[in-house]
Design goal:
Elements: H1 2-15, H2 43-48, H3 61-66, E1 72-75, E2 77-79, E3 88-90, H4 91-103, E4 107-108, H5 111-120, E5 128-134, H6 139-151, E6 155-159, H7 172-180, E7 184-187, E8 202-206, E9 209-213, H8 215-231, E10 237-239, H9 249-255, E11 260-262, E12 280-281, H10 288-298
Parallel strand pairs: 1-5, 1-12, 2-3, 4-5, 5-6, 6-7, 10-11
Antiparallel strand pairs: 8-9
Helix pairs in contact: 4-6, 4-10
This protein binds zinc ion (ZN).
Zinc ion binds next to loops.
Length: 300
Amino acid sequence: MKNLIAILCVAVVLAGCAGNTAEKNESSSSATLTASKNDSTSKNDLTVSDNKPVSGPVADAATILSRPQVPVLCYHHIVAGKPKNAYEVSIDNFKSQMKALADSGYHTILPDQYYNYLVHGTALPPKPVMLTYDDTDEEQFSIAKPEMDKYGFKGVYFIMTISIGRPRYMSKEQIKQLADEGHSIGSHTWRHDRVDRLKDLNTIEYRGKKIEVNEWDFQLLNTKKQLEEMTGKPVEHFAYPFGIWSKQALPKIQERGYKLAFQLSEKRDPDMPLYTVRRIIVAPGWSGEGMLKAMKSSFK
Ligand SMILES: [Zn+2]
């Protein structure tokens, strides 16, 4: 089992989150997302507000697709020194990127705010952006959080639950602290398995034993419950391992109580856009200004 875990960890580290890195920009309206009534509110108020459920009419898929997308950034490793692969960003670049967002007047939003905007047309703060972190890496707590704290930013952490408490990954206590401080915790499956390969019934090895499970429940529902118990808060958002999704997976995710699911930069599903929300991976070479440019071109 130890060997299996070692192999899995290496595979996960090497693979990171990305599978579909090719970017296909969707054409969507370039109308601004600002709401004038929020313009005078302070930065701190804006980043943590409007997370409550909103009642009222629910938009259909076409309306959701017509609403301008919020730029969603996807981070993995934040490293000292020079990045070695496409899923690493240097600490210096990360700091420049946070500063560039703050200096340019961006406000971080959380998934509930994005959902309310897409589904109910609720206003967002001016220049909204979402910062997401995949795979439970420890430096997302020890390096990213303090940097976000400087600017009153909040992040979204997609947790692969098998890694919790392991060396170089976040602990339960760190995840709880993130939730307590107003960051959002989402699921990134149990073991970083691709959702297009999950089966209704499959035999898996779990804690040294072979067990038969419905993998959808095991990877989506069990992780949701585990994270909810850990944080004391609802866990209603999901990120696809490797960014890979399939049409068949979308209702399975919805049925298990998730409101939004985040992919990478493929075109959104025409029928279930809430389950194919777009993100871009922050590239190792991007300065703060470079990242702002990439955001603008990818989320027109
Ligand atoms: Zn991942």
